[in-house]
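Justification of resources, computational component.

The compute hours requested in this renewal are based largely on the per-chain cost of generating structure records like the one below. Each record pairs the submitted sequence with a full C-alpha cell output. That output is archived, and it is also reused by downstream analysis tasks.
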Amino acid sequence: MALIAATLCAVFGVAGAYCQPSSGTPAERPFDFAYEISPILARHGCAAAECHGSATGRGGFKLSLFAGDPMADYEAIRNEVTGRRLDFATPLQSLLLQKPTRQIKHGGGRLFRETDAPAQTLVNWIKQGAPYTTGLKQTLSEIRLTTEGDQVRVTALFDSDLGIEERNVTDLAVLESTNEQVARLGDSGRIEPVGPGETWILARFGHLNTRTPIRRPFSQPLTLASPSGSENPLDVAWLRRLNELGLDPAPAADPHTVARRLYLDLAGRPPGPTELRHFEALPPQERIPATVDRLLSTPGFSEVFAAHLADWLEIPPSGQEERNPAGRDAALRESMVDWIAEGSSLGEITRRILTERGPDRAWKRFTDPRDRAEYVGRSMLGLGIGCARCHNHPMDRWRQAEHLRFSAFFSDPRPAGDGAMMTGLFFLPGEGTPVEPALLPLGTGDAPRGASPEETVAWFVLQRARDQFSRNFANRIFGVLVGKPLVSAPDDHRISNPAIHEPVLRLLADFFETHDTDLRPLVRLIATSRLYALSSQPPGPDQLSGDPESLFLARRQARPLSGKQFKEAVDFVLGIATHRSPPPDSPLARQLHILNSGLLQEGLNQAGNQIAAIFDFEPEPRRQLEELFILILARPPASNEIDTFLPGLISARDSLAAGRDLAFALLASREFGSLR
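The structure output for this chain reads:
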C-alpha cells in the first residue's frame, strides 16, 4: 500500500498534504480521510446543520452533522450509488468540486476556488482513487492551540508505529472566537483585534477541540494590592485577574448595604433593627466575618441553601409537576434542610440522591435512561451531554456512543429467574442491541468491584469526576452569592462556554474539594471577600469604574429579589404572615402584583404588624421616620429623604395612616425589591 501511494504521488505529481514526508520517505506518510478530507467539510460549512449536515441533508446529499462520522461521510461521497459525486477520469469535473467552486449552481455559494488548497487536496485525493486510508495506521491523540504574534497555530499530534508525529493543521481546523467584539479570526487564522476585553479562541480538528484566551486590557495593566489586612485567596486571584484586564474595581458598598446583602443571601431575610445596630457596633474589620459565622449556624441558612440545592438538583417545588406526588417533592426538599442543618457535605447529599431509596426519586422520576443520564450530567457535574443523544458535539468531548453507554447505568432492574431482581438492560434505540454500560471519559480509575449501577455512578461522580463535581457546585454557590456565576450556563461547562474568571473558578473548586465539599467553608470564603462586598453603584455620575457592562466582576450588579424572597422579606419586615401569593418574576407583572394584589395592603392593615408598633411606641415624627427606614430598607434616611417625608409626618392628622402610606411606598420601591 505504501508503494502504491508513493507511485501515485510520483505519477500524478500531486502536492497534497499526505504526499509530503514528515520523516523518512513519502511512502511512510499515512493518509486518513478523517484527518485530510473531513476537516475540509467541517471548516467550510458543508457539514453544518443548515447545509448537508441537516437531518435530511441538502439536494439529495447528506453528511454527518459537523462531519462527526467520517466513515458515513466517506460512504456518502465515494460509494453512494445515486450520487455520482466523484469523476475518476476527470477529477476536476467531479460534482464534489464543481459545487463548492461554483462551476455549477450551488446553494451554499462559492466556498473556495479551483486553485485553493482545499480544491487541490480534493483533486489529488480523487486522482489517487479516493481511498479512506493509506499507509501506516495513525491515531489523532492531541491538538495544541498556540498564538504567535497575531497568528493562531493549531498543531495535531498523531500516534503511529513510527512514534508521535506533529503536523500544522491550522488551515484544516475549525477556528472560532467566542467574542468578536474583542477579536475576530481571519480565514488564515490571523487575529484581528476589535476592542478591549477577553475572548477565547476555539479550535476543532477531527474529534478533538481546545481553546486559548486572548486578552486585550481596557487600560494599562494596574498594580492592585490585596485588601488591607485580608489574606482571602479569592481576592488575590480576582485582583490579579482585574490587573491583567486593566480594570479598576469599584469601591466597597456602604455597611448597611453589605449587612442587608448578607442577611438576604445567608438567612433569606433582611436584618432586623437590633441586628443592624449590632452589626454597626462591631469594629469594621470584624463586622462581616462575625456576621457570616453567626448566620451560617442559623436555621435560615439551612433553609436558604436547601432551596438552592433543591433547585440545582431539579427537585420541583411542591405540586408544580403533575407526574410527581406533591408530598414526595416536599418531603425531599425538607430532607435537604435537615441534611444541611446537620452538616452533611454536598458530596454526601449527592451520594444519598444517587443510592438511597426515597432520595433517588430525584432522578428516578425520569423514565428514559437517557434522561436520567443527562440529569446526572447537568445537575451534579454541570455537563450538558444531551446533544450527544443525537450527534457528536462539535465543541465538546461527548460522543454518541459515550452517551448511550453512560445511559445504560440507569436502566431499571428486571426480574431474574430465581424471583429476585437483576441489573437492567438498555437497548440501542432502533436496533434492539444491548448497550454495555461505561462511565463518561472523565478522570481515571476503576469502580469498586461488585458495586451496583447506582453505587458505580455515585463513585464516578464523587471520585473519578470529583474535579468537575467541585467546579459545578463552586460555580453555582458563587453565582447565588455574587449574583452572577463564573460559567454563565451552570449546567453546561463545555469548552465553548468558558468561565469569565477561570483562575477564580479553579481556586474555588480546589478550595471546595480540599474542604471535602463542605458547603459552609466555601460560603464563608466568598461572603468574607472584598469581591462580595463591592458596591453596585458607580462612584460618580459619569463613571462606571471600569468594566462598564459589568462583565468581569469589577463591580457588583444589582438584581431583583425573586418572588419568594420578596414575599418572605415583606413578612419579616411586617412581623406577620401575609396570605397572598408571591409576585411573579416578570418585571411588569411583578410591579402590578405588588401594587394591586393586596399583598402589602393586607399586611399593613393587619393588627400587630411592626409598622403599627413604631407609631404606637414612638411619638416623635423624626424618630418614626428613622425607624421606618431602618426596618424596611435597613438604613437610616438620607438628608434629602428627611426633607421630603418628615413634613408630611409632622402635619398628619392621623400619623399611623401617614406611616402606612409611607411604608407602602418604601415596600413597593425598587430598593426594597432588589439586592444592591
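The longest helix spans residues 466-482. The mean pLDDT is 87.
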